[in-house]
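hey so i finally got around to running the thing on that chain from the lab meeting. sorry it took forever, my laptop kept dying and i had to restart like 3 times. anyway pasting the input first so we r on the same page abt which one it is
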Amino acid sequence: MSDNPARHEIAHLARVELFSPKPDETVDFFTRFLGMYITKREGQSVYLRAYEDPYQWSLKVTESPTAGMGHAALRTSSADALERRAKSLIDANIDGTWSEDQFGYGKTFEYRSPDGHNLSLLWEAEKYVAPPELESKIVTRASKKPLQGIPVKRIDHLNLMASDVTAVKESFERHLGFRTTERVVDGEVEIGAWMSSNILGHEVACMRDMTGGRGKLHHLAFYYGTGQHNVDAAEMFREYDIQIEAGPDRHGITQGQFLYVFEPGGNRIELFGEAGYLHLDPAAETQTWQMSDIDTGLAIGGAKLPWETYFTYGTPSPLALDHHIERFAHFGPGAEVPSTEPVPDVVETPQTVGAGS
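ok and heres what got predicted. didnt touch it at all, straight out
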């Protein structure tokens, strides 16, 4: 593995904004079922955090005509690192703008991935200070563990969908110093890449959109820290009609424990049990999976991740989830991708509703 001067200049994934056409139901999902706290309401947006998230918010839910990702922000390791990473992008003729308008965060560099995802880099972040009634006796915990739902600990990782995985991967490697821990190839084509800026198996991943779409969100993940919570959560979701896509099981890729569900607004959410394989070896090489081994790569325990959604559905989607499942019901390895009438070449970022978002 060659030295990269940008290595370790990205600390971690700090926040993600989700668009939802059903914002009240989406917020209810994250608060009632996943135990997240609301820290602020403003305009058409609600700001939330899990009980071990260190900042004012890690999740922003904004009302929009369609589901999708508004933006994702990565925190750098220092103010100077922010300037260096922004300069790397600018020097490569990647358009970006500076802003400072997000609650709880300071100076931010906003740009787009090669596939059109809205990404941001920042350093200044306001630490969350719990009110007396939420102060935890565990000094390393930002607030008390909620007594509601099966509460997630923190935001974990982001998985993007792209028409060209390699271009997105190389941008994260070159400009942000990420290393690719694992990847999946089908012949000469990269189907997926799992990337990390620290010892986690991944904080950002990218999967090929089999429909040919661009700039979509595959899923946003939150961390439990124990696999039993995934089992308990699956029972909870069954009881309250939250649609489960797959799991609980353990991935071969990353070895993390997973449960995939669709929140009411249509975005895919992953509940991560144990984190899986930690990358402590600073000279570790990228591990490559073949598409022929994808069943083991996706689920060691034998769960089948459905081709009709897992490899084809991302948000924003030209089709509602139920219509997408119907259209892709017979899609699988080697099958022709059904038309979604139409699938746009570029999925435009949805416009939010109202002001203050």
